[in-house]
Amino acid sequence: MTIACNLRRASALGVVLMAAAGLAACGSDPFDETPVPACPRAFLPSDTAQLTEFSAQGRDLTDVVFGAEMEGYKGECSYDLEDKQLDILISPQFTAQMGPAAKDRTQQLQYFVALKNPAGEFVQKSVFDVNLTFPKDANRVRYTDEQVALHVPLSDVNSGPNYEIYMGFQLTRAQLDYNRRFEK
User: Fold this and answer.
1) Domain limits at 148?
2) CA–CA separation, 108 vs 31, rounded Å?
3) Element (H or E) spanning 181, and its range?
4) Residue 112 C-beta-side C-alpha neighbours within 13 Å
5) Does residue 59 fall inside a structural domain?
6) Cα-flanking dihedrals φ and ψ of residue 177, to 5°?
7) Is the pLDDT of residue 9 over 70?
8) What DSSP line would sit under 117-169, residue for residue?
């Protein structure tokens, strides 16, 4: 038996993001008496939800090549009760803006999706490459990546809601320090 529930899109805007009651509460078949576990909660930590790429010359606003901000996500989760597995499909959404130091209309960035188990240990992490191309007439783009699939074997399906999903930009140490210096 497979039970599905939807993730809800949420806004990050520089703060740790947790969807109101997890990614979404699952609904169930009115004729099925099996309780449906909720989807795991998703977080966009503020220190990795921003990306500022500087040119090699400096750290002034005029040296910004491009910037990006995680805005949320969309997706779904489902439980396979027979095989005791949680399947998550999630697509990060972000905006990017060219800076004054940009020399090319195509920019590269990386983001991660990680899964933390109920014991607080990260058990899965994947890093994804994105090539952004800014149209000739726009210096700002909104981007939703393809779905990322997470497959989580569970000894007990009721532990599924106790997992947590983390998404953010894969930053260099200097970019992370920059974000932490200017966090609100």
Assistant:
1) 41-182
2) 49
3) helix 173-181
4) 20
5) yes
6) -60, -40
7) no
8) -TTS-EEEEEEEEEEEE--TT-SEEEEEPPPEEEEEE-SSGGGGGG-EEEEEE
Q: Is the pLDDT of residue 29 over 80?
A: no
Number of domains in the chain: 1
What distance in Å separates the CA atoms of residue 86 and residue 34, rounded to the nearest whole number? Answer: 16
Contact 166, 150 (CB under 8 A): no
In a domain, 85, yes or no: yes
Measured CA to CA, the distance from residue 117 to residue 121 in angstroms comes to: 5
CATH of the domain at 121: 2.60.40
- List CB contacts of 20: < 8 A, sequence separation 6 or more: 8, 10
Residues 70, 9 contacting (CB under 8 angstroms): no
pTM: 0.78
- What distance in Å separates the CA atoms of residue 18 and residue 166, rounded to the nearest whole number? 10
Is 104 among the domain residues? yes
Decide if 98 is inside a domain: yes
The answer to whether 90 and 7 are in contact (CB under 8 A) is yes
Q: Which two tokens stand for residue 56?
A: 């090699």
DSSP 5-60: EE------TTS----BTBS-PPP--TT--SPPPPPPEEE--TTTSEEEEEPTT-SS
- What are the tens digits of pLDDT across the range 118-151? 999 999 999 999 999 999 999 999 999 999 999 9
